[in-house]
Amino acid sequence: MSRIVEEKDASESERAIREVNTGIVAAPREKLEKWLAGLSNNNAQGEYYLTDIVAAAVADGVPVEVRQPAAAHECLGVNSKTDLAALERRFQMNKANALLESGVTLADPARVDVRGELTCGRDVVIDVNCIFEGKVSLGDRVRVGANCILRDVSIGADTEVKPFSLLEEATIGRDARIGPYARIRPGTELADEVHIGNFVEVKASRIAARSKANHLAYVGDSTVGSDVNIGAGTITCNYDGANKHRTVIEDNVHIGSDTQLVAPVTIGKGATIAAGATITKDVPPGGLTLTEKKQVSRPGWQRPVKKK
User: Which residues are catalytic?
Assistant: First the structure.
């Protein structure tokens, strides 16, 4: 290349050249100042062309190299939100095509967003409207349901993330089941075969193999052993209004529905907590622990009636 010429200033033979300038130039700063100072507006439009620095570089004996883009869209400009959205879709389609080429099954390549680094094992399946942010790793045969968001997450082989789940800064083991509508918050580590079900939230907790929290529970700042069953409506009350406290649930514990575990507290191995209990003290291993309440009936009581 010897120079860049504007269309209006080009000769007939120059217009026949099929190579065009995209507007992207890299130049040495110490030379650029001199070249810019020497620009002239002696041209058909009376303008100062930055592209004239190419001819100046050639005159100074500075090597000029041309780089060819892999595709035309790499050089498209962005002058509006519409342009930006169009280029983002092109970028995402390139990401989707790369995933398809690597063997990933995408339910709809036009409806997946990779906003970071996504690595997938063999036979991974991703449904529609999933977003991957940061660094995400999916093991062999992982399935991600529709409308999930995964951010800085590592997931082991054969795990299924069911629809409408949000996973952030967590590590998930093999053959686990997450969701639907589950939230896995930062600092969570789930071992193999853990089940976290619908409307369950886990935060900064370690849950060992084969443990389950299948319905409507909150597990925060906790260490949970293996083969634990956490009943629906269970809450680890980890915050006292000023500080966070830890709950320890040892192996093979069964926690009944609607239980409150007021941290700091430890539930001993093999213990059973009856439904509706509020646990404020450590529970010994084995046996049944409950907070007894007397049931009262009032035969003459009348239900309130709406005022007309």
Answer: 215
